[in-house]
Amino acid sequence: MAVHHGPDHVRAAEAQSDADGSDPGQDYDAAALYLHLHAGPFCGWSGDLLDMEQRPVDPPAVGDHEAPGPQAKAGGRRVSEPKTPAAPGELISGGSAPAAFADADAAAQALEKGRWLFAQECTFLKGCVGMEHLPAHPLVEVAFAGRSNVGKSSLVNALTGRKTLARASNTPGRTQEVNFFRLGPPHSDEAALMLVDLPGYGFARAPQAQVERWTRLVMAYLRGRSALRRVCLLIDARHGLKANDLEVMGMLDSAAVNYQVVLTKADKLGPTVARATHATVAAAVARHVAAHPDVLLTSSETGAGIPELRAQLAALALPA
Questions:
Q1: Which residues, 6+ apart, have CB-to-CB distance to 70 below 8 Å?
Q2: Helix (H, G, I), strand (E, B) or coil at 155
Q3: How far apart are CA 17 and CA 19, in angstroms?
Q4: Region labeled Disordered — which residues (predicted)?
Q5: CATH number of the domain at 98-317, please?
Q6: Which tens digit of pLDDT belongs to each residue from 76-111?
Q7: What pLDDT digit, counting tens, does each position of 111-132 carry?
């Protein structure tokens, strides 16, 4: 073990006089459970300490170790280079997504899975105006929810590479049905997803009775759909989280429904403002128990963040 005055080299067969360590005192009782390391509190049980490796305090002496680099090895294990942060405009996330896979190869494979799946046939299955009309099928569902005119239909079109798959309305709140789209090879359900475009909540240019009916339908679907694996909760990056977004997030937390916040229309913001907005939203999302830790910044116009979102959603249908 390394100490502050340098490494002590002890032959394997040579006993150390102080091997038992110093006595902290008879009245001192410190369970390993409450240990604090230099990097922070130790989260685990005392037995977990057996698998921990102490980092050296001082740099290694010349000749003791191989030169640092991607080919360096320690104890027969390959030492990888530090990860490079995602480039601006590609992905701004909270810490996983393809950028935080085990290595660059894993990230590339995840992106390719996403590209492959979303290049498959995508067909409109049906639109439903009530829970009793929802289709029965064996697929995993991914739903797209958000305020009216947040860009749900545009995002679905961008993900699938189709311009008219999901109708985008210039009038907020005109999507009146829960629309189902089957994505995947036409004759196999093993690598397929059901994409669900939900009516928008919040402001809508429609009669109040209709708005209330749409809202009830969306909430009933989000709470009670067993096939639902993830909700992509879309937030307009220009406006950030609104009161009704927080209300939906609280409802999803209570129902234990996994959801991921996706910021849309990033092309409308400059890079500095976009990053500041992302940081603010990510900090708020971190306080919600059912929220996915990654907040993605996307643009249906430029394609920013679209490959990363494809990769995350494809992982639900194409597990490693």
A1: 79, 80, 81
A2: helix
A3: 6
A4: 1-25, 54-86
A5: 3.40.50.300
A6: 433 333 333 343 334 444 433 444 466 788 889 999
A7: 999 999 999 999 999 998 888 8
pLDDT at residue 11, rounded to an integer: 53
Residues 6+ apart with CB under 8 A from 233: 145, 146, 245, 248, 249, 252, 259, 260, 261, 262
Residue that the structure tokens 């996915």 belong to: 292
Residue type at 176 in one-letter notation:
Q
In the chain, what are the domain boundaries?
98-317
Of 213-222, 277-286, 292-301, the one with minimum mean pLDDT is 213-222
CA distance 115 to 78: 30
The three-state secondary structure class of 147 is strand
- Report the phi/psi class of residue 202: left, alpha or beta, with left for phi > 0 and alpha for psi in -120 to 50: left
- Give the DSSP letter of residue 74: E
In sequence order, the 6+-apart residues with CB closer than 8 A to the CB of 39 are: none
Structure tokens at 301: 């116009």
Using CA atoms, how far residue 98 sits from 103, 135, 141, in Å, is: 9, 32, 21
Q: From residue 106, how far is each of 57, 109, 320 by CA, in Å?
A: 32, 5, 10
Query: How far is it, in rounded angstroms, from Cα 89 to Cα 114?
Result: 18
Whole-number Å distance between alpha carbons of 319 and 96: 16
Write the secondary structure of 21-49 as one string of H (helix), E (strand) and C (coil): CCCCCCCCCCCHHHCEECCEECCCCHHHH
Task: Compute CA 72 distance to the chain's CA centroid, rounded to the nearest angstrom.
Answer: 31
CA gap 111, 219 in Å, rounded:
32
The dihedral built from the CA positions of residue 182, 197, 142 and 89, taken in this order, carries a sign that is: positive
| 3-state SS assignment for residue 1 | coil
Q: How far apart are the first and last CA of the chain?
A: 38
| Listed ranges 33-37, 51-55, 145-149, 287-291; the one with the highest mean pLDDT | 287-291
